[in-house]
Amino acid sequence: MDKNKTILIVRNSYEYSYGGAEKYPVILAAELKKLNYKPVVVSNSKKVLSDARKFNIVNTNSLWWKKQNWDGYNNFILPVYFLWQLILFFWYLHIIKKFDVDVLHLQSKDDFIAGTLAGKLLKKKIIWTDHADLKHIFLNLKIWYKNPIGKTVFICSKLASHISVVSKSELNLIKNASGARRLENFSVIYNGVNDSFFKINKINKRLIFIMTSRLVGDKGILEAIDAFKIVFKKHKNTELQIYGTGPDEVFFKEKSADLPNIRFMGFSNNIPEKLSLANIYLHPTYHEGFSLSIVEATMMGLPIIATAVGGNPEIVQNNINGLLVPAKQVSNLSMAMEKLIEDKDLRENMGKESRRIYLESFQFKDIVNNQIRVMYE
To answer: 119 is in which domain, residue-wise?
Structure first.
């Protein structure tokens, strides 16, 4: 088996977005290096490229257009979008030849079109990983006058050798959105993290709830703040720590300004260490493809309270390693928080189950070796 292939790993996104989908290219590339592949990380994100350099991974800046919304009146200027795709197509021809690429691993909407067409022209293998975007991209495919970009992406999907999606929930949503009876080159490959478990004796004066998230409304941060305010009235020795940055940061800080036990910790490069100091992980998001943050919490052996949406139930087994609650329901969230505050044995047992689930299903080195490498070969 030839393991010395050059893999072009492409992920573009808004600069404020730095979640599991943005971490994925670098941790994937690091594992591929161990298997003697030659990964090249391509991104418009300075954070992604910076992380790649820390791992001594070859990287290059990508062409990317911040305008991603082409709905409604934007359809009148669609020729401009397809002109952009033509420019991106020739850029891909250049990059493929420059790095002598064998496999293109694409993970962004615009790249699904231009990268796929350029790769097929040069007879390269095309792999897609969808980070919960295709369910939106494939809407209204059966209506002839709607969503020409989505239709183009769908046609290009037929040219990919393999398309991995991050959860069973996402695969079902893609089927429903596209109306396709069969998606023969699609399969579910979970994301994961490499084990960095270390146990710290948590001699905390306060019981710590922790969140790691972009600071935007649909992550359920306001619900977490409101639920914690309810809990705090009865349990004064608790604290909510929120790690991350985002466009709604000022708003959330204003909403919690009256309670110093809600702490905004900013961006951290070492989330596992922060998780190891906490007691309970919160993830009250409104929707979710597949959460790498929850996987990190399972790795660190934390009990988890998460909303029963998207791929969350594929990681959090209700009453086993955590509690699942409805999205946008502050009362349910606060009751789940109180339940774990008041039952130390339950917290500890759920934490042990989280660690077990991680070891069985979400060690990234095993995912790369047993599933992703198979796609490449």
So the answer is: 6-192+363-376
